[in-house]
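Good morning,

Both structures are done.
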Amino acid sequence: MTRTVVVTGATSGIGRATALELAGRGDRLVLAARSPATLDEVRDECRAAGARAIAVPMDVTEPGAVAALADAAQAEYGRVDAWVHTAAVMSYGRFDETPAEVFEQVVRTDLLAAAAVAREALLRFRAGGGTLVLTGSVLGHITAPYMSGYVAAKWGLQGLARTLQQEARETPGVAICLVNPGSVDTPVYRQAANYLGRVGRPPPPIASPERVARAIAHCLDRPRREVSVGRLNVVMRFGFTALPGVYDALVGPLMRRAGLTRQPIAAHRGIVFTPNPAGEAVRGGWLPEVSQVVRAVGGRAATVASAVRRRLP
């Protein structure tokens, strides 16, 4: 049976990659995000992949917007079988130097809007069941300096998801999944609000958004309570829990070295309150394209082979 899937945060990063992944699997899609023009582009990309898709421009933090989105999905397709929530914003800065309204909007977007989505999805699932996939973060299990709003929201989301999973045991056919990526090659780091004076970046190792999208799609096929995407997630969680003193001593210097670029930037509010369509894409440019890597490796191999042949008698 073809599923109807709502994807919130569909214009960029993990959300956009997920929309395209699900389109390739033949799901019927309801795509939602704040940028109407970019959302139309994603809808057209999904239709080109053979999927039925509609675009519903909306802001998940606006009162009533999530309910209106669910109504639009049911009006178009008659039901909602699954909901993937990926909408998120970030802010860099010391807690005491980040404007209160920015901190609060990050929490509102990353936690309270996720709660609004969960509430609406569960209401729609009562009739015939369904799967809700929330996108968390490894930062829902550990902490890092200069990202207090994002970390607080993701810890809250972890608790919310766990609670919903416990309650869902009493609701046959309803599954709650939490996908926790580590560093991912998305535009969110450059799009983040910034009060540190240096542009943020994902610390290595970096996963592709397509890899996270596949994990989300697998959860829709075979729901799992929690999925971690990132080679060092388990190591970081162990260090945070078992060696807190060592972790706290190391995380600041590591964050400044690996989580921030040397590129200076003036203080700004990023996309916390308003979107930036020009910065929306699946990838953020932190990982090289596979074709570039193949060409580089092939070119280096050819050079080495040529040098070896010249030295042979």
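Second structure follows.
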Amino acid sequence: MPQIIDGKVISAQIKDEVREKVSQLKAQGKSVCLAVIQVGNDPASSVYVGNKKKACAYVGIESLSYELAEETTQEELLSLIWELNEKKEVNGILVQLPLPGHIDENEVIRAIDPKKDVDGFHPQSVGALCIGQPGFVSCTPAGIIELLKRSGVEIAGKECVVIGRSNIVGKPMALLLLRENGTVTVAHSRTKNLKEVAKRADILVVAVGKPKMITRDYVKEGAVVIDVGIHRNENNKLCGDVDFEDVSPVCSAITPVPGGVGPMTIAMLMYNCANSVSLQ
């Protein structure tokens, strides 16, 4: 049986470490405050925002919540972001995505002060990651690196394949694996011979957005498989991009869905919030 990489346990460790750091900051008279903005009431977004508030309460970070109507204009949203950029007591600003269709997400992300960009999506944060400068790193890829390290998986010198090239997961994931001295290939829906490419991987990270697409034909014997996808199947049960039952027997370690990558995203958001104080 493969090692099951437990994101619940590892995310709890990280939140406890952040809680300790926040209490040390408070002892120095420094508080940490995260502002979360949600436009509209997309049910999945509401669940995420609720989980973020709970995590803030647990680690001792103050959270400000701005729940805006679906018909909020782009100008109104940008005006709120600029106001929060100016507020010294606000350390982190997070705009819950996706936004309603009439709002340009890129413009909104660019409006956030890079020093408060705890999601790590601002072009300046991404550029800093590219050239190895300090800055915020997108929470999901940062969480995956922690999952690997804390599960005893060596990255240096390993063949790493990332399937997916999104700005939020695929691209920063590749850069972080490179930073850890992995040899990295980024594959995607247009990659020729995808199975052969994936089968080279010692570490396979899947963020392709298709339920159970990755079967054992894509996985090298003994590989470590990280599944970023989350979907509901025909029986309304959660599943990932990887066919867990099919792939488990051939890999050495694998993340489950749920309970793998998911909990890490919020843990790393808390980590970024605590670190925002020193960046500012």
